[in-house]
Each structure stands twice: as C-alpha cells, then as structure tokens.
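Researcher: Structure for this, please.
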Amino acid sequence: MRSLIRSLAFLRKELVSVWRQPRLIATLVLGPFLILFLFGLGYQELPEPFRTVVVAEEDGSAIGVDASELDEAFGEGIDLVEVSDDLDSARQSLVSGQIDLVLVAPEDGLEALERGEQATFSIFHAEIDPVMTGSIDLLARLSVDQINQEVLTGIVEQARAELSQTDGPLADALEDVPDIDPALLVSPFTVETSPVTEQPPSQAAYYAPGVLILLVQHLALTFAALSLVRERQLGMTEMFRVSPLTVREAMSGKYLSFLVLGMALASGLAVTMPLLGIEVQGPLWSFALIVALVIFASLGLGFALSGLAESDSQAVQYSMVVLLVSIFFTGFVLPLDQLTVPVRWVSYLVPGTYGIAGLQDVIFRGQPASPPLMGALLMYGLVMVALAWLAVRKDVEPANAPAVEVS
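Model: Predicted structure, token format:
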C-alpha cells in the first residue's frame, strides 16, 4: 500500500503540474487541431489553371483549329492568356514566372497529316515539383486529345460537305481523298512536354531543399527559445539586471552565436546533397544568403516565442507547433497554389516559406533568389528583431536608474 500511495502521489503531482500550465495544454491540444483545420479549410483538390501562351497562327490554318478557340478545347485546367507568334518572348515570360506553360503548335500540322505523318505539339514548362510535372503531362495529353477531336470533326464535316456537292458516284469522290492511316486520322497530333530547367529533380532530390530549410529553421528557433527560458530558470536574469549589460549587447551576442552555429549546421547538411545527385546550379553566394536570412528570421521568431514560454517544455512545444505549421503551409508537401488565398497568408508567417522557394530557384533553376523574395524575408527578420527586443528587454535591462537619497 505504501508503494501504491507513493505512485499515486506522483500521479497527482504530474496532473496538477500540467493543469497549472494552461498555455501548454492549449498548445498541445488546440494547436495541432487548429493547424489541421486551417489546412483542410484552405486545401484545394485541383490546382489553379495553368497560365498558357499558345504559339501558333491565329487563323488555325496549320492545325485546322482556330487558335483563339483553343481555350474551350483545353477545358478548366488551362487558362489561355494569349495567342502569339513570338516563341522567344513566350519563353522569356515562362522563365520570369509570368506564365506557366508555352504550347507551340506544329507549323505544318495538316500538311503532315496529308503526308501520312503525325504532327507534334510542344509544351514547355518551368515546374520542378514532380507531382505537378506529372499533372502537366496528363493535362497535355488530354488537351491534345481534345484538339484531335476538334480536328477530326472538322475533317469529317468538310468531307461530308464536299461529298454532298459531288454529282458523280461516291467512289469517284473518294479517289481524291488521301490514303491516310485510320489510326493517324483518329489522332493526327501528339504532344511532347519539355522542362526549361537544366536539371529536372527526382522525387528524392526535390524535397532536399525543403528538408534543409526546415531543419535549419527548427534548430535556430529552438535554440533561441530555450536560451532565454533557461536563463530565467537559472536566475541569470537577476545578474543581468544589476550589470552594465545592455539589451543591444545581449541581442547582438545571442544573434551572432546562434547564427554561426546555424550556418555550421547548414553547411554540414548541404555537404550531403551531392550524395543525392544534387548540384547547386545557381550562385553559391545566393545559397548562403538564403540560409543566413532564414536563420536570422528564425532566431527572432524563437526569441519572440520565448517571451510567451514559462518553461522548457512550453518553449519546445511552441517550436514543434511552428514546425508542424511549416510542414503543411510552406509548400514543402503541397504547392502553395493549392491553398486558398486567406489560408495562404499563414504560409508567409513562417521563414521556411521564403527559404524553400529561394533554394529551389538556386538549386534547380540556376537563378539567384528573386530580390522581392529576399527583401520580404529580410523585412520578416527585422520585424522579429523588434519583437525579440521586447522579450529580451524584460530579462536584460540594466539597473541604471539614479539612486534616491534618503534624508
């Protein structure tokens, strides 16, 4: 009975300890459910239509279909932006991200059909997500199948009109019809999709930048959050308050130390990328800048969260909630385009969203991260510095108030 009583005493102690931490309970219970609720609310099963430029003759003389009417043939998966005859300009718009697809119609589609050959549509895209690449391939085949039906319908209608105007027997009319393979007549066009990136990533390689960014973000955020909490628990804040230490000096030292540690960890993780067959095609300085800004922003977020935490367990739990948000809302699992606009704003509250997009540009597209993206990440980090200043100031505030003389 004594052993049972002692065991039950620990049971009561732990239950009361947890009950006295309402923030921890709310974080453990409500946090994950709220994240899943937002994700389910904002997830779209179908992605946004691909913005497409068709390079072809507008009158459709080469393919037998009016290019301006291709929007109806494509269906809801493709948003026809314009019909152009300038392939170079369309490819530049594709690389710059203004459009998603460039569809190039064959120049001699109907002539190839008369020669008994199959003409080919070419589709160019800048997508690196393997899932989205598969969707583009499927959408391309479905779209060309629809064009084949439109062309075949036009051929049949034209043949019927010509035969109806023929006075001679049907056999005489068929003598002028080209000898076309029935299979070719059913599918006069085919399609080929080509990425504009030099190194289309594999399934494993595609997720490597996201894993790197999420790990760096989580480590930096956790180190920063635990740093202030442990100082409070050890009573070091009392020494800080009576010392000449300033908030600026404390924050500078903390940021510098954790930034060096984070960059060292990121370098170790980056070394493993060649083992997956990943080569950084873009400039290395851009790669390093992105990682450094993610660490900078994550440290600020960690210091800000430490102001809300009252214990180590709460600080760790807050960092785990941020990691859970990062997995669902940064584009790591699903493209951001498949989130509705109100919920998509949650993505921009996490540093990893900017870091993953930037590293994908550098590693797979061979381009430096866009200045607007890096500017947004820098502004995020500066806002977090202001919040971190408030969290650090209450723990590290010099006692430099003038003494009051008592007569």
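Researcher: Any notable elements?
Model: The longest helix spans residues 130-164. The chain has two domains: 50-195, 202-393.
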